Description:
Layout: E1 7-10, E2 12-15, E3 18-26, H1 40-72, H2 74-87, H3 90-101, H4 106-122, H5 127-147, E4 162-166, H6 171-176, E5 184-187, H7 195-203, E6 207-209, E7 223-227, E8 232-235, H8 239-263, E9 267-268, E10 274-281, H9 287-292, E11 297-302, H10 316-330, E12 334-338, H11 344-348, H12 367-373, H13 375-388, E13 393-398, H14 404-423, E14 434-438, H15 441-445, H16 447-451, E15 456-459, H17 461-469, H18 487-502, E16 506-509, H19 520-525, E17 530-533, H20 538-547, H21 550-560, H22 566-580
Parallel strand pairs: 3-4, 4-5, 5-6, 10-11, 10-17, 11-12, 12-13, 13-14, 14-15, 15-16, 16-17
Antiparallel strand pairs: 1-8, 2-6, 3-7, 7-8, 9-10
Amino acid sequence: MFVDKDIILKGIAAAPGIAIGKVFLLEEEDFHFVRKEIPKSFREAERKRFDEAIEKSRSEFKVAYGKINDVLGKNYADIANVHILILDDPTLREDVYKLINDGVNAEYALFKVLYKIVRSFENMDDDFFKERKVDIQAVGKKILTNLLGKKEKNLAKLDEGSIIIAHNLTPADTVSVRGKKISGFATDIGGKTSHTAIIAQGLAMPAVLGLKNISSLVKTGEEIIVDGDKVEVILNPSQKTLLHYKNKYILQLADAKESKKLKSLTAETADKHEVFVFANIDHFDEVPIILNNGASGVGLYRTEVIYLNRDSIPTEQEHFDIYSKVAQQMLPYAATIRTFDLGGDKLAKMGLLNLGSESNPFLGLRAIRLCLKYPEIFVSQLRAILRSSVLGKVKLMYPMISGLEELRAANAILDKVKEDLGKENIKFDENMEVGAMIEVPSAVAVIDSIAKEVDFVSIGTNDLIQYTLAVDRVNENVAYLYDPMHPAILRFIKRIVDEGHKAGIKVAMCGEMAGDPKFTPIILGMGLDEFSVSPMQIAPIKKIIRSISFADCNAMADKVLKLEDSKSILKEIELFTKQEG
Length: 581
C-alpha cells in the first residue's frame, strides 16, 4: 500500500495477472416473487409454465456451451455442460412438481427446492463441493429469470478496459468479455475450484474471487486494479500505485508472450538435456487448463475428491467415468492416477468403517494402509483405472508406500484384479506402468529394493519433509522448521534419483518443491527426470529449465550436497541463480 487512500481487499486466487481499468458493476437482479396459492384446476398449467422455463434455460445454456466451445474448445465447453446436467436432474423437476401439486406457484416451489439443495452444499467441508452450490444457484437464477420474463444483461457490450465487478459470474459470462484490453474481474463469491475460475485461467484473464462484499463497495466508472498474482483488488488507487501497476502490466505482457511460446516448447536445458514438466490436478475439469499451459502430461491426479462429502463409497462406474475422461482428454500425453490418499475417518463418515477418531491421523490408517486393510474399496478403484487404461496412456501410482511388503501386497491385489478382468473379457492395458510415491523415510532407506519392482517413482516432498524432520508444517509453533533445503532432505532426494536410475526407471517429483522456481536448479542438478507442478507453475518452471545449463546445475548440486546446513545451501543456490541470470 503506497498511500492511505488505497483500499486493498484480499480474496481467493482464481487466475493470475494484472488488470487495470474502470469498474463495470454488474448488479444482481432483484427477484421479487411471493408465495401464491394455485387452485387445482391451474396446477397443470403451472407445471407446464415451469417446463417451458426449463426448456428455454436449456436452449440458453446450449448457446453458452457453443460460445465457450468456439473460444476455448470442447474441453472447456464441457465444464459449462454441468448446468444442463443440473437442469436434467429428474429430482429437481420432481421436487418442484410436488410443491406445485401441493398448491404453490412455480417460482416459490423452485426457490424452496434450491434453498434446500444449496444449504446441503454449504455444510460440506470440501471446497470443491462447496463451489458446486454456485452452479446450482446459476441454474436457479436462469430458470427464475425465464419464469419471471426478465432479460439478462449483455456483457458483450462492455467498454474496452472495463473491470467487471459482480456478485457472481457464470462461465458463459466470463467468455463473453474475451478480447477486451486489460480485462479482468472480481466477485463476491466463488473460489479456486469454481468453473468460473477454470474458464478465467483458460482465457488468461486476471481474476480474484471470494471478496465477499466488493460489489457493494464500488460504482461503475471508478478506477480499480485486479492483482491476480497477489490475490487482491485495489480500490481507489493512488497515482503512485497506478504507475507501479502499469509498469508491472508491461512486464506481464512480455511474460505472457514468452509463456505462449513456451507452451509448445520442450523443457530442455541450454546444453540440450531434456526433462519433462507435468501437472498435478485434483479434478478432470483442470485438464483443459494444463494442456493450455503446455503440460507434457498429468504427473499426479489426486483422486481423493471423488470420495469426499458423500454418504456412500463411489462405485466402480463412477470412478471409470471420471478416469476415462482424463485419459481421453490427455491424449497423446500420459495421466498418472494415484489411488486415494485418505484417512479412515473420512470413510467412517460413509458408514463403511467402525473407526473412531485417531489421535494422529497422519500416522494412522490412511492411503495404501487403508486400501490393504479394506481391499474391497481398493479393488473398485483399481478396476476402474485398468478399464480406463485402454482409452489413453494411463499410469497407476500408490501413495505412502513405506516398504516392499506394502508394495508387493498392493501389486498382488492388482494382479488379481487383472486376472478377474481377463476372465470377464474386459480389456485393459496389460503393460500399464505402476509406480510408487516416495514420501516416507523408510521408503528412502529401501529405495534400491523398491526401484527394482516398480516402473517409476515420484517423490512427494510435502510429506517426506514433514516426516523426516518431524515437523507439522501447519503448526505455527514449529512451522519454521519445515525446511526443503535441509541437508537430509537433499541427500534423500539424491539417493532416490540415483537408485531409480540404477534400476533403469524415471524419477519424478510431485511435491511443492517441484513447483518452486528457486529450487529448480538444485533439483535439476541432482538428476530429476520429471517435474509435476500446479497448472500455473508449468510455464515458469519450463522457462527456468530452458535458461540454465544442466552441466552447471549438476556441478552446483555436487557442491551443495557436501554442505552441512540449509543456510549455506540457500546461499550457494542464490549465488548460482545470480550468475546464471
